[in-house]
Amino acid sequence: xxxxxxxxxxxxxxxxxxxxxxxxxxxxxxxxxxxxxxxxxxxxxxxxxxxxxxxxxxxxxxxxxxxxxxxxxxxxxxxxxxxxxxxxxxxxxxxxxxxxxxxxxxxxxxxxxxxxxxxxxxxxxxxxxxxxxxxxxxxxxxxxxxxxxxxxxxxxxxxxxxxxxxxxxxxxxxxxxxxxxxxxxxxxxxxxxxxxxxxxxxxxxxxxxxxxxxxxxxxxxxxxxxxxxxxxxxxxxxxxxxxxxxxxxxxxxxxxxxxxxxxxxxxxxxxxxxxxxxxxxxxxxxxxxxxxxxxxxxxxxxxxxxxxxxxxxxxxxxxxxxxxxxxxxxxxxxxxxxxxxxxxxxxxxxxxxxxxxxxxxxxxxxxxxxxxxxxxxxxxxxxxxxxxxxxxxxxxxxxxxxxxxxxxxxxxxxxxxxxxxxxxxxxxxxxxxxxxxxxxxxxxxxxxxxxxxxxxxxxxxxxxxxxxxxxxxxxxxxxxxxxxxxxxxxxxxxxxxxxxxxxxxxxxxxxxxxxxxxxxxxxxxxxxxxxxxxxxxxxxxxxxxxxxxxxxxxxxxxxxxxxxxxxxxxxxxxxxxxxxxxxxxxxxx
Length: 589
Ligand SMILES: Nc1ncnc2c1ncn2[C@@H]1O[C@H](COP(=O)(O)OP(=O)(O)OP(=O)(O)O)[C@@H](O)[C@H]1O
Prior knowledge:
It is a multi-pass membrane protein. Helices cover 64% and strands 9% of the residues. The chain has helices spanning 5-16, 20-35, 38-52, 58-107, 110-114, 118-183, 186-209, 211-216, 220-257, 260-273, 278-287, 290-293, 297-319, 375-382, 405-411, 426-431, 438-447, 451-455, 474-488, 504-518, 553-559, 561-581, and strands at 336-343, 352-359, 364-368, 390-395, 398-399, 412-415, 492-496, 522-526, 538-543, 546-551.
């Protein structure tokens, strides 16, 4: 169910936590500042009154000029302080909401997150949440200021002549009707605007991250078409919004400014009849229509408010993804068991069915199978990146669903096929948020066979990695990932082994790093190179949506046709490479 505007604002204040008191104080100061708007008009009126009563002296002028001066200073001082407080509250809240969303994403199932594209998530984290600052730091205090000012002036005008004060309000009634027309049915439009900016962001991200591919296939113009389409879509959404809101906005501006058309003739008539004093007539002619123009920014606030509500809604959508919370201690035994597991990414096609395996504590097991058979899926279920549809994944004697998620992630290390490096330094990339000392990081890097290389970099461990680790080769990146895992020293290790680890020398280094990493751990290796299997205790074949055969290399070779054929092909390929090159290309050595 869609939340009401009020509920969304209350939700935002809840996210603000204690910082909402800054916001409340800012609103109170804004209110007083707004109310003091009437003070200068009061001072001017009093001077006029004294002039017409022929009682105006130097003292009277000085007295009311002082009142006027203090009124203006007081008003701006309060409004300025309100702005400082509202900005403090707003930026603290923004920080909290961004941290909450990021933290929540880390605890949410990967499946739910990957339904959203990167552009959509980036839009929520940047643009949508940024709009909350606009609301908290500007709209909230300004809304109070722009409303309370005219209310204070209206009340003051009522004390001078209540009938003419009421006349001055007539344009406001029409202005509000027009404003209502302007905002009716804009929710969907704002939603579309938010979607179009998310699409635009996704296209830009895709364009930049796929730059190499675009160049390699000379896809520049085609990719640009996709980008320009996204820009056009965004533009057309905003054109629609402008078409809907533009005319009523123009009417609103005209209406609030045309109070004089009523005040001057009616006020003049009453003055002629003697029911209105000259000073009151001048006051109304001067202020009577002007004070309503203070309400003009309300329209702009209204437009932005619709966008802010959309921002709150979007942030809430991510925060409402059910996260993995609670759970018991990580078990002492590090055996892993899949029991009758069934799993599908999309809810329709089963990638795994009746899948069973028992991995002993401290055992080293290789998963083999054709490309797309489901090897990576099996290991991702072990780390609870996704939840199974049926059956159980157990670590020790516990279902992974019952283990505290943070403890689970702490106790499982994964080295992915494709290494992701953050933009920071090499040191930060190996530490990954831990408190490890430089010496501990270097020791891990030595074991991963990458320390010597890092020391040759211009700033050693402080060298910046660059976006997406652009300055490192595939093999170097992999060894950095191995160093990370060595430093983390988790008892369960999952290696989604890469085939692209470059030249044999690099491969040898990586293998040495991996051997150091595996010591004393329960290890599951997704083996893309068959030679890796010989370093494992057992091998499991993933085929036909299940784990079809588990045993030692010899046992599986005898029992499983896929594995037997794969080894035959592998050995024949090795013989061919011997006869072609005449050298020893054995990658197992
Ligand atoms: N996030 C995903 N959403 C939908 N389908 C997916 C997803 N990830 C993988 N798949 C599909 O699941 C099947 C198994 O993929 P998986 O990556 O587990 O295979 P694999 O054996 O590890 O393959 P490879 O050896 O090529 O890495 C494939 O058909 C793949 O297209």
